[in-house]
Design brief:
- This protein is mostly helical and 99 residues long.
- It has one domain (13-87).
- Helices cover 63% and strands 0% of the residues.
- It has helices at residues 13-26, 30-73, 92-95.
- Helix 1 crosses helix 2 (30-73).
- The longest helix has 44 residues, at 30-73.
- It is rod-shaped, with a radius of gyration of 31 Å.
Length: 99
């Protein structure tokens, strides 16, 4: 098949013997057990890579948010920062009825 890749593995004698024993216990061929192990390892490696990429994205978003908060908290020229957030402590001015 065009989607298949052929690999050749050279294993140390002790590892090859352990592979043969494990395959025999399950009724598999050593080749199919090795192929299954490689497939599982590649899937784990792919998931790990995706996790690292997502962590990078989250770190970048957190840094962006921190920069925005820093800009909002910086001294400003006459802007009332208490009016920036809609959730704020009520003041006496807020409770006064409109004329």
């Amino acid at each position: 098949m065009a989607g298949e890749i052929k690999l050749t593995l050279t294993l140390e004698a002790g590892l090859a013997a352990a592979l043969r024993r494990a395959a025999a216990e399950r009724g598999w061929s050593p080749e199919s057990l090795a192929a299954d192990c490689i497939a599982q390892h590649l899937e784990i490696a792919l998931r790990h890579r995706v996790l690292l990429e997502r962590m990078e994205q989250i770190d970048t978003a957190l840094l962006d948010m921190a920069e925005v908060v820093g800009e909002l908290g910086a001294p400003s020229g006459g802007i009332d920062l208490s009016r920036v957030c809609r959730f704020r402590k009520a003041t006496a001015d807020d409770a006064a009825p409109a004329p």
